[in-house]
Amino acid sequence: MGKVVVKPEVCIGCHLCEVWCAVAHSKSKNIIKAFLYEDTKPLPRVIVEENLPVTFAWQCRHCQEPDCVTACISGALTKNPVSGHVEHDSSKCVGCYSCVLTCPYGSILINEQKREIIKCDLCAGLETRYCVSHCPNEALIYVED
Amino acid sequence: MYSFQLPEFIIDRAADRCIRCRVCERQCANKVHSYDAELDRMFSGEKDCVGCQRCVVLCPTLALNVRPRTSDYRPNASWTRDKMQNLKKQAQTGGVILTGSGNDKPYRIYWDHLVLNASQVTNPSIDPLREPMELKTYLGRKPDSVKITRCADGFEVETESFPNVAIPTPLVFSAMSYGAISYPAYLSLAAAAKELGTLFNTGEGGLPEHMRREYGGNAIVQCASGRFGVDADYLNNAQIIEIKIGQGAKPGIGGHLPGEKVLANISETRMIPIGTDALSPAPQHDIYSIEDLSMLIYALKEASNYEKPVSVKIAAVHNVAAIASGIVRAGADIVAIDGFRGGTGAAPQTTRDNVGIPLELALAAVDKRLREEGIRNKCSIMVAGGIRCSADAIKAIALGADGVYVGTAALIAMGCTLCQKCYTGKCNWGITTQDPFLIKRLNPELTTQRLVNLMQAWSHEIQEMLGGMGINAIESLRGNRDHLRGIGLEDWELNVLGVKGAGE
What we know:
Chain A is α+β, with helices and mostly antiparallel strands and 145 residues long. Chain A has five helices and eight strands; from the N terminus they run E-H-H-E-E-H-E-E-H-E-E-H-E. The longest helix of chain A is centred in the first third of the chain and has 9 residues, at 16-24.
């Protein structure tokens, strides 16, 4: 199992990871189209925490024993036994936000429009992990455990 | 007082591309861009833009275009926009106009008027990919002659040898002090020098104690007029000790690191209180003659047990050849010449743009003078100031340089765009700043790699050009002006450079 790890000492607080995460999860995957022309505003799964000069990007840690999976009342959140990723099935999500309350890292975010949660899926189905490949200072790296 | 200054840059933002991600706003230390949530629009206040291009490079949709605003006033060859802007600035402030980086005036760049030779038919060129090509360079004093005696198991060198430093390429990083540049920038230079086996120069800001063991073996340490950071351990951990008399960007004047840049680590390294201005006097106050210089050279040799070459760095000025001769006679093992296009973290613009002479002429004059006096072997010549590419470096070597300092080019490799605002301490590229938020923009791992790549690329190019000339060692090109020809130069210029015109 792998995860995205941040190096806060070289995070420049540009928020490009958020921008590209939103693009990665948009319909068109085209940055201009996604932000300016798609019906729903693209939302990032990664959030940059800031208390200048400290900044760092933060997303789902894909925990060994994820509290969010335990808390999920509808079975929408599951821990994939093979990949180890914590996965979210939006068709099962009822928008109770129990996972949001239990996540110790605050890494589960809310899509108000659809009343469901969104979280990092490590760019499943895409060629690269967008936050990692687009970080201009290589402050985000993907590491296999 | 109300400012009559015009903005220096125009910012175009393509509305059909801007996604209001606010990256430009976050990246600008000059607070040029701002976001209005009510209108969901970005605004740009051009007044404070320095044209560093950080926002342009980081913009994910390439929505920004920042370009100089050049032609506001009625065109006038004498009263140029720069001159008029400076006048208005001085009328407003009454101060000296400060600037950073190197002389940007259109003086003749002699590198661009010199061409290299190549082998055709009568002598073979060499393919550096197939055959050995030696760039190894030894810095330091060489003996007048070498006496060898035969002994039972071979030969023995009788002649006393002097301390020399071997580097695998003649390229060395220029003096840039910790304080003038950020810690990640400084660390990257040190780490790149270590990886390449070459040298970096600490400048006059000392070498932090925790770096001495690891990077001392690749350091040229400076002892400048302010004596910042100099102690016995500093000198003894280095490879070469350099006495800084002058700097190409500001010959005749000292340095000034503003107190705001003197944070805890810098204060410790420089051995001065936190927040105090680090003022380097214009002269070295114990040097008023060649004899005085000799005393300092030998004091430093004594302090380092005569194990390290001592270099003396001077700015290229009118009488540079005679000065260099005196320096060699004073006991220096290396003479470093800094031309007037050399960079700086801060200098009065009038000094930067009007004082000193081009490196090319100074180097040729010094090399010639030392040869004529029969003392060229007693020192190595290092050159600095405006070396922009491998061709400049190889031409410098053909003009007589042993080693070449790479400063501004290294900064550009790190990200610098020569916006010349180093003195403000708000470098958006994280280079000439101590702001803890801005310095994170240099990831030392990446920056080190960029510097290593640059030096390797240049070294390869030098090998290619050497091979083309049919030379297989850089030593054979050193001072070999037959491999240079001048184009578009006057007789006096060819004379000073000691090269023939093309076709001759």
